[in-house]
């Protein structure tokens, strides 16, 4: 709402007031006959003004005319930033790319536009010609920004959200054991990703083992009794619409040896045995042992 007041008018019946946007007339008004008095009077014109985008750079003025001698006076109305617009409220920018958001506000005198990032101790951000400019978007530039339009009359703010989007972080793949697990042990393999949302998948030899949805920050494979055949390369993959990142782990499994295949046990006992029959039995036993040991591909020496 704008008010234009003209003081000390006489005679009021010859008075006329006109509102202009730039140099275009938008509203004309003449005082009501009932308000006429035969004396010097004041007159106020109230104008409900709803700015449109076309008006942004134009001044609103009020022109007072006294038709006695065609005496006119024009006054430019001063008003605070009333209507603030931004080119985008809610926007996302790809990592490393450029983003520009323009903020406009009407008002007279023309408002000064300042952009700042909310929640920062160093509040001013790069801003030229009403624009918020992000040249090389980084993750830390995501957040809320505020455009503050102010002039001598007042100030107005508008908040916008900037999202930075990009490929996921490199995921982590970990084995529950810090040492090489032994055959038969219970282990788990965890594939996890921090930060941005990504779909996690755990693979082995290009076969999907476990997959999570976008909400899950980790997927897990539990193996209650690990076997030698479970050894190998496992891949953890993090994927979103902007890219894929992978990590791998080479899992080796330690074989749990049969006690008889241990080479030093029968060899150490032999020389202490005196009897020939016992020795024969022992040799037989060793032969069997050797066979068994061979099948396990362990080295055994009988000499
Ligand atoms: C016009 O307004 C001025 C300033 O507000 C005031 O001093 C004056 O008395 C007013 N005149 C009339 C006729 O109301
Ligand atoms: C609007 O008014 C201000 C001061 O009142 C003036 O400096 C400026 O030039 C005017 N702008 C236009 C577009 O008329
Ligand atoms: C921004 O949000 C405001 C209200 O919060 C709304 O009036 C305006 O239309 C929005 N602008 C855009 C470009 O989405
Ligand atoms: C963008 O920012 C990244 C990280 O800060 C930097 O490594 C890269 O060189 C920058 N690129 C340009 C074109 O400035
Ligand atoms: C907007 O800017 C004006 C002028 O610099 C300042 O007085 C006002 O506190 C600012 N408002 C906000 C919310 O930052
Ligand atoms: C993600 O979690 C939210 C709430 O926590 C839920 O509403 C949404 O359905 C989940 N999305 C998926 C893909 O599971
Ligand atoms: C794996 O084991 C953990 C605890 O050891 C349990 O919380 C989790 O639910 C198990 N996951 C699956 C897929 O069985
Ligand atoms: C995995 O580790 C084992 C033992 O260190 C090694 O023999 C094997 O070549 C590795 N596999 C790959 C694909 O690197």
From TrEMBL:
The keyword Transmembrane helix is assigned to this record: yes
PROSITE patterns with a match to the protein in the record: IG_LIKE
Domain Ig-like, first and last residues per copy: 81-163, 168-252
GO MF terms, alphabetically ordered: axon guidance receptor activity
Any one of the GO BP annotations: synapse organization
Pfam families: Ig_3
GO annotation, cellular component aspect: axon; neuronal cell body; plasma membrane
Transmembrane segments: 265-286
Record's keyword annotation contains Membrane: yes
Keywords in alphabetical order: Disulfide bond, Immunoglobulin domain, Membrane, Transmembrane, Transmembrane helix
Name of the protein in question: Ig-like domain-containing protein
């Amino acid at each position: 709402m704008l008010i234009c007041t003209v003081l000390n008018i006489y005679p009021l019946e010859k008075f006329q007031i006109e509102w202009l946007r730039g140099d275009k007339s938008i509203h004309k008004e003449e005082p009501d006959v009932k308000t006429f008095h035969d004396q010097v009077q004041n007159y106020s014109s109230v104008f409900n003004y709803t700015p449109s985008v076309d008006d942004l750079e134009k001044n609103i003025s009020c022109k007072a005319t006294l038709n006695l001698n065609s005496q006119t006076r024009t006054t430019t109305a001063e008003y605070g930033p009333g209507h603030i617009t931004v080119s985008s409220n809610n926007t996302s920018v790809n990592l490393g790319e450029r983003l520009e958001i323009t903020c406009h506000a009407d008002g007279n005198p023309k408002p000064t536009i300042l952009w700042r990032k909310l929640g920062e101790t160093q509040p001013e951000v790069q801003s030229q010609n009403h624009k918020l400019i992000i040249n090389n978007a980084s993750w830390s530039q995501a957040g809320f920004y505020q455009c503050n339009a102010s002039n001598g009359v007042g100030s107005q703010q508008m908040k916008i959200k900037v999202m930075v989007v990009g490929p996921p972080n490199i995921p982590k793949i970990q084995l529950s054991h810090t040492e090489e697990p032994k055959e038969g042990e219970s282990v788990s393999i965890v594939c996890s990703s921090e930060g941005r949302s990504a779909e996690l998948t755990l693979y082995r030899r290009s076969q999907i083992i476990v997959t999570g949805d976008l909400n899950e920050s980790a997927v897990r494979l539990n193996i209650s009794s690990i076997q030698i055949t479970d050894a190998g390369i496992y891949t953890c993959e993090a994927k979103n619409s902007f890219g894929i990142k992978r990590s791998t782990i080479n899992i080796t499994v330690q074989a749990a040896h049969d006690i008889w295949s241990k080479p030093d046990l029968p060899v150490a006992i032999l020389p202490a045995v005196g009897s020939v029959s016992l020795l024969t039995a022992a040799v037989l036993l060793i032969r069997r042992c050797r066979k068994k040991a061979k099948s396990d591909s362990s080295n055994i020496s009988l000499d």
